[in-house]
Amino acid sequence: MRDFDGSNSARHGQVVILGGSAEARDLAIRLGGRSRLWLPTRDRVTGQGASDHATLSELAQTADALVLAPHPCDAASFQLGARVAVQAGVHSLTIARPTWRRTSRDKWIPLRSAREAATRIPAGSRVLVTLGRQALPDLRALRHAYLFVRQLTDHRDAFPLLNGRYLHGTAPFTVAQEIALMRRFRIDAVLTRNAGGPGGWPKIAAARALGLPVYMVARPHSMAGPVVPSVEDALNWLETRLWLDA
Fold it and tell me: Could you tell me the superkingdom of the organism this chain comes from (predicted)?
């Protein structure tokens, strides 16, 4: 495992990280003072600010590399990062963890988008939704099901959809906790995104154990340039491009 503490700065490249994922935080820690972790406005507060492009562009102008590591299903941030990298003429790299893989024991129904859920989920379903608040407008047509929308931050905002409620909780969750929650609220379907990684996996394993269908929204196809699956691979790429281990 390599860590870069910022010593010998004349031979170390400056890296801007467009964050939003666990990998972004890990990479920032591993790079130490040679990195700047930046989050889109909507990852800090509700709503995306109009200045995101200008702010990231300013950071990229003085960077040697821009690493795109938002949530793997955040198409808007990937598009923003790719656009800024081209305009700034800076090396760019995307970190995208591997997707989850369906097995013969899983009951997955693939969806191209969250909006498609309205045409696929049966009437009367009680659905655990883990898509994030930004996706809720896409579920307005899903009036025939009751939605339990998971939130990882505590708030008292009114529920914006016709039928449903928020479920507040603090990650990480275990498989046993997910099974207990699904039984408590009589969940009969899960609506989620194929984020990959260990953090969200317990709900998938719980649905498998209970024999529940999982409506799985595919990742956006918006990644450009070189893509690596892990922080370690990103460090290897940066080492090659910027001689960070010099």
Answer: Bacteria
